[in-house]
Amino acid sequence: MLRGHGKAGSPELRSRYVDDVEARVIERGVESRRALPALPWGRWLFTALALALVLGSVFRMPALAHGLSLVLSSSDGRTPPPPEPVWSSLTLELRYPEHTGRPPRTVPNPSGALRVPAGTTVALTMLPRHPAVNASVVVTLDGAELSSAPATERVELGSDGAGGFTGEFVVRGSGNWTVVIEPEAGGGERRSAALPVELEPDRPPEIEVAPLAAGEQSVRDDETVTVRWHASDDFGVTTVELIYQLPDGTTRGLGRQPASDVPRSWRHHTAWDISAIPISARSEVLYWLEVRDNDPGLGLDPLPDGPGKPTRSATLRLEVEDEQAEHATNILDLRELRDRAVDILAARVMTTAFVEAGGNPPTRAELARGLHAAFGELLTHMAASVDALSVDALTEDRDAQTLAAIHRRLLAIHGQEAALHVELAPGSELEDPPATAALLGRMGPLNQKVVAAFEDEIIRLDDMVDGMLIEQLEALVARLEATQRKLVELLEQLQAGDESVRAQIEQLEQRRREDLRRLSEVRAQLREEIEQEFMNMDAFAILEKIAADEQLQAMLQRGEVDRALEQARGELDEVQRMRDQVQERAGTPEAAGPLTEEERQRIALLRELSRLQDEEATLRGTTTELQRAWREKVAGRDAEPDAARSAERKAQALQETIEDINDARLGRDARRGLDDAKAALERLRSAAGREGAKSLELSE
Q1: Which one-letter DSSP state was computed for residue 127?
Q2: Considering Cα of 290, then 295, then 299, then 305, what sign does the dihedral take?
Q3: Which residues pair with 176 in a beta bridge?
Q4: What number is the average pLDDT over the span 664-677?
Q5: Total H helices, total E strands in the chain
Q6: pLDDT in tens, 13-72
Q7: Which residue in 447, 445, 346, 455 sits closest to 406, CA to CA?
Q8: Could you tell me which of 205, 214, 252, 211 has the C-alpha nearest to residue 228?
Q9: 3-class DSSP state for residue 252?
Q10: CATH annotation of 208-321
Q11: Is pTM beyond 0.85 here?
């Protein structure tokens, strides 16, 4: 202002204003530097700290640190060029192992990783870039641990006479291989870059077992179960074996079922003869299938249970009903019933309840009530035995009818005695002893009638037990003969060179031992029932001889097939002779007593129900087999183009309908079903749109 800058105005006014400002500044002590704006020291400090942090983080990066070190040392950090190849041409011929089924493959001038199965032979044909005296291949394998790495393998290559070299090495594991040459000009060995080699994995096989239908999960001991399965593998399936586990934890196998060739996908079945299983009366058998592939174990690590890698399927369950054992249980129950009847008869013969000299009336009344209660328990036991015999497939109709007639007659007498016991109310013997004594006297003649009836019925029960034991003996001898005959047939096949029957022979030998054990039990029971006179000692000496003979498996392990066959044929002749002798000694059983129409209808109904259940199981198995056979026949039939397009359109329409469903209003099960339906329709659309769609796949 003092210099006249600014707008034009009064000089005097300008001078006064300047003097006034100067006076106030001097008065207040304001320094002149305060007229300048303040510097932004805080912003500059924050910026400096942030920049320091960024630079510190950047310099901690390995790449930047390495680059900085190269700059400071004035070094060239570029990757050195690869070494000059030691060959001008290299051809590899890959000869794959036989189990892979692959044809040989030629790889010219390889530059990457070599990925092959274990056991592949790599044949080299190499022409060096410069003349060479010797050449070799160094193979270095990777180890599971550094301390146990396999030794390096050096394979010398042979000269082909034209300046080239040939040779081969076998791939056993992953690693790398290097070509080493010795030039003519000297200067030491020259090596090529290491080329990696990788093993192509040979995965374990897979097997899927079709579960049995509901009606096939419980079978009798004389049936044959068909177990269907589907096995697959990367290179081929060799065998499938069905293995089952008994209730005691022991496992048995039916023998490995070999494939006709070595298919990668094998859909077949196994016939399981249940009669060869040594089990108790009714038992649960666990079973699974084991599949093996054709892996010969050509890698570094040997297969633990080679040849082939095994895979076990899921464990399934099968209920097996042994009719022979159930029939034997029914006979034992009938013997117990007879023995109880004998005890009741003895008690009634010796009782003093119905004579005046037997004591005071209360004591005699208590004895009478005990006899009547034992009589009722016997009838209850007998009724249950009638039901058991009615559904026993190995029991003759006459046996059930005889027992039912005995039960009917004894029940009538028990009803008469029960009418008198109504008058003998508990406590009446204490209130009126004379009346109780008179009532017990009236029961005396009826007790004699009960004794006479028991004597007759016990004789009938005893005869029935004897007859059933003899019939069981005949059935077991017939079964032993059938087993021995089948054993002879299998030994003849083994003698002809069929090694696949060894497992069946072992199963039949186990079954024969079980039959011999049961025959010994029946023989002991017959000795108790009808004394030794009935038994033919010559016949049963045959059983002892068979049991004492050397086991077939021991002879077969020593390779004495001819001797085993000769022994089995001799035992078959002896068993046939024993069966004839047993049949000659068996008597004709007594005819059954008359039955009421209601009892006859009841027994017939139980028999018919049992037969219908058996026929239902058989029919279900037959229809299932027919359905499987039909599926196998039509599985390879291609669908018509119009049918495929129609299926695709229907699937698309159903998908649009399903998309409109609000799954928020559905429960868990319904939502899961909706998801399954969507997935099924998607598979149908995919199958219908694929070339070569199958009719069976679209129909399902």
Answers
A1: E
A2: positive
A3: 140, 196
A4: 70
A5: 16, 20
A6: 878 887 887 787 777 766 666 666 666 777 778 888 888 777 777 666 777 667 767 777
A7: 455
A8: 211
A9: strand
A10: 2.60.40.2550
A11: no
Residue length of the chain: 700
In whole angstroms, what is the distance from residue 175 CA to residue 194 CA? Answer: 9
CA 233 to chain CA mean position, Å: 18
Peptide bond into 205 cis (omega under 30): no
- Distance between CA atoms of 613 and 440, rounded to whole angstroms? 51
For the chain, what is the radius of gyration of the CA atoms?
49
E strand or H helix at 371: helix 361-390
Assigned token pair, 254 = 């039916």
Fill in the amino acid letter for 270.
T
Torsions phi, psi for 85 (to 5 deg): -55, 145
Contact 263, 101 (CB under 8 A): no
Q: What residues pair up with 165 in beta bridges, in sequence order?
A: 126, 159
Nearest to 489 by CA among 465, 508, 466: 508
Distance (Å, rounded) from C-alpha 51 to C-alpha 191?
50
The residue type at 180:
V
* CATH annotation of 87-199: 2.60.40.10
- Report CA dihedral (453, 455, 460, 462) to the nearest 10 degrees: 150
Beta strands of 521-648 (E only): which ranges? Answer: none
Element (H, E) at 240: strand 237-245
- How many degrees, rounded to 5, is the angle at CA 271 between CA 268 and CA 276? 155
Cβ atoms of 572 and 481 closer than 8 Å: yes
The tokens of 210 are what? 């079709």
φ, ψ dihedrals at 243, nearest 5°: -125, 135
Asked if 522 and 551 count as a contact pair (C-beta separation under 8 A), the reply is: no
